[in-house]
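thought: user wants a sequence for this fold. calling inverse folding tool.
action: design(structure=
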């Protein structure tokens, strides 16, 4: 058998299994320059296009080029769970009465279920500035809807669930009697096995390869690398 290599506690003390990103192409990195980014819609109000002038991360951002442009995406969520929606914006003067706004709906089917009551415009920004809002899902789908009425750049749009079962690995142990062979973790009985993005793959034990988090019934959590 090949023994699983454990990362030492000093290295892993500040590491956590990250929440799964639900937005597709939130970094605006795929699509055609001058056109709407891939995986986004405009709700019938064109004006957001991929632009290489500035970016929070990567090469591209979405630039607002017309009045009342929309950047929209509908996402499946779980009722009662807590989510954080965020994005970064830049080069925005906020001179228009409507400016740049978050018109996102926590219920995609209800046109008045705005995440921000009154949908106030955002403050001006001359450098990359983050907008962030935490909310509780009230329907099976929410709709991201970022709208602008003047020039602005938007990047790194994100939606993550705060309580959907991600696993912290801050208490990683230096060693444990766990072994692997042919994709199987032995010694993990009565434990749950997760990917580092928090997906429970316990039932896939026997077909594993890579980095996993093993959580025992006693609450002990270990990050492991199966080579």
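)
observation: tool returned 227 residues.
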């Amino acid at each position: 058998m090949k023994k699983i290599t454990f990362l030492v506690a000093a290295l892993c003390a500040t590491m956590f299994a990250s929440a799964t990103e639900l937005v597709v192409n939130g970094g605006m990195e795929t699509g055609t320059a001058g056109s709407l980014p891939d995986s986004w819609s405009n709700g019938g109000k064109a004006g957001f296009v991929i632009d290489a002038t500035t970016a929070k991360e990567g090469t591209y951002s979405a630039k607002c080029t017309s009045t009342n442009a929309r950047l929209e995406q509908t996402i499946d969520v779980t009722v009662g769970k807590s989510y954080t929606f965020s994005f970064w914006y830049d080069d925005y003067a906020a001179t228009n009465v409507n400016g740049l706004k978050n018109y996102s709906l926590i219920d995609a089917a209800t046109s008045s279920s705005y995440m921000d009551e009154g949908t106030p415009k955002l403050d001006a920004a001359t450098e990359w500035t983050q907008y962030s809002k935490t909310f509780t899902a009230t329907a099976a789908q929410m709709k991201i809807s970022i709208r602008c009425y003047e020039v602005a750049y938007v990047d790194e749009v994100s939606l993550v669930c705060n309580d959907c079962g991600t696993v912290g690995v801050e208490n990683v142990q230096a060693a444990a009697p766990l072994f692997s062979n042919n994709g199987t973790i032995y010694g993990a009985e009565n434990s749950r096995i997760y990917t580092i993005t928090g997906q429970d793959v316990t039932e896939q034990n026997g077909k594993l390869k890579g980095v996993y988090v093993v959580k025992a019934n006693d609450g002990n959590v270990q990050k492991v690398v199966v080579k």
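thought: summarizing for user.
answer: Here is the designed sequence. The first strand starts at residue 2 and ends at 3.
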